Amino acid sequence: xxxxxxxxxxxxxxxxxxxxxxxxxxxxxxxxxxxxxxxxxxxxxxxxxxxxxxxxxxxxxxxxxxxxxxxxxxxxxxxxxxxxxxxxxxxxxxxxxxxxxxxxxxxxxxxxxxxxxxxxxxxxxxxxxxxxxxxxxxxxxxxxxxxxxxxxxxxxxxxxxxxxxxxxxxxxxxxxxxxxxxxxxxxxxxxxxxxxxxxxxxxxxxxxxxxxxxxxxxxxxxxxxxxxxxxxxxxxxxxxxxxxxxxxxxxxxxxxxxxxxxxxxxxxxxxxxxxxxxxxxxxxxxxxxx
Length: 290
Known about the structure:
Blueprint: E1 7-11, H1 19-31, E2 35-38, H2 53-65, E3 71-74, H3 81-84, E4 97-99, H4 103-113, E5 118-120, H5 124-127, H6 133-143, E6 154-157, E7 163-171, H7 172-177, E8 190-197, H8 201-213, E9 222-229, H9 241-249, E10 256-258, E11 271-273, E12 276-280, E13 283-286
Parallel strand pairs: 1-2, 1-3, 3-4, 4-5, 7-8, 8-9, 9-10
Antiparallel strand pairs: 5-11, 6-10, 7-12, 12-13
Helix pairs in contact: 8-9
């Protein structure tokens, strides 16, 4: 995927990054044999985002188009990538883009317009200090083009069969927010990954229903559930999050596999959005990135 001494641009098209985390992440990535360039406006702030929409879009377009940049790594999630999507040009090359959380919106746009390597993995501000060694080892191996092990999964609902298709999805809230836009999820023939953080169960039900009723999940071949961090029901509730997820997803009649260690927890195992994969008793697996 990346050659030694490749240049990685770090951008913040969404929330305001923690600069200490960015510095630590940049240092780690440099130790892997890559050059790191920070976007010109990385330290800007505007309300809850890392600069105005214009500034963030400018940095993102620089990272996606400039000569000499081989990959793009998002500094932080939060919210804001959607502001940049209308300005993405046609004809972008397939340089790797790495991130998670709000990067789901960017991936949703890029998977339709240019493909290439879209790596759902840890943000740069977390890679050095807020994820575990397994997460770091996996993302490094993927960047080097090495084969990685499947992400383990447990059967949750529907048929216990293995399915194959493009792997799409990411953060549930972001995917639901894209319904009705040009970048809405297209799950036809695809394995849909869903993960979430700090959403209570009734909101998770609402988000899944938004995807179902908007047709975003039509034609999917399977569902892979990642981590749902801090998404527990209120104290005293007579139900669990798993009850809500099962009732929301079982009507699809699809194989649903859960407990994939990806999303917003310390173990955030990377996978490639838009690439072919299989999901079943052996977990979520994809071919070696090249």
